[in-house]
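Quick question about two entries, pasted in order.
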Amino acid sequence: MSYFPSLRPDCRLKGYGWLLMPMLIVASGCSRASGDAGPDWRSIDASMKSSPQVDIASVAPHENGWAAWTRSPVYAVDIPKGLAVPPDSKKWVRMHVDCRESSADVAFIEARLVAPSGSILQTVKKGEAGAEDYPSAGRIPYAISPPAMICAAAAARCRGDALTWPLERGEQAAFVPSCRRL
């Protein structure tokens, strides 16, 4: 017996179509396709309100390593002379990270000062004037830091896993991606 008794058996699916289609549309909106993902900002230390964050969705292969966007509060030292920066603006830095066995090599790619409204106040790229204000960190050991989170996120994606953060002590291998492409 159908919920729509007047429908013939071969037409029942059409009768349920009005219910099935909206459910599929709603369900498909709940999942993200990897290419359509928006930012997924994760704090490197959830206990700190002003902790730097990494956009896990932006982690991508870059010149034999990985690159991703990070963001942190803007401090007075970050503001170029003459630039008006509203309160609660953020400093976004795109960095290159080469994830090695016991440390990461880090290099500056691009920086932006972003207003709370989302408008970009300033952009500086590697090699441009002002880029020297964003020094490359060089080689750093793994710890709770944006480069370490970028390496851990890349490694997790290579394995097909979700990022677990922070990693347990002694899990150095979990920082080293097993692939060079996603």
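Here is the second entry:
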Amino acid sequence: MQEDKKLRLQELLEQQKQRIYNAKINDQKEYILKEIPQFHQHYQFADKEDIIKLKMFLKSLPTLISIRLDFSQLPIWHVIKSFKDINDHFNVWICFLSGLPELFELYPYGDIQDFINDFDSWQYISPYLILVCDNFKDFIFIDDEKKMIQSQNT
């Protein structure tokens, strides 16, 4: 009987932790929606399947040194001088590299041109970002000084 109570208490504690965690994630979603007023017109959040793909991709990237990538381990990359160098329309996943841990669980998705238009707001949310392309191979890293490094042929 005592063991049943311990198990039940453990189960209730786990459920409470999950509710608190979900509430924190929802708080971060609300924060993003507040900072990006047109979010629902231009972006969407990743579903569970895409989150798994994104996490696998991010784990495959060169070592993160603090919040920066070790670019010496990338075979092909180049610096983007300005957003003006990106004229194309293609979709990207926005991955946050700084902020609250719950922010790392949210992956907005949208057109690169919309991201460029909203860039100051995105950088306010997190100064370090990785934009992952649809192919889950190419990406653009952006740091707090707005330095952009592009992998392969995004």
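Reply: The first strand starts at residue 43 and ends at 45. Strands lie at 43-45, 64-65, 68-69, 77-80, 91-96, 108-111, 129-133, 139-142, 148-151. Hope that helps.
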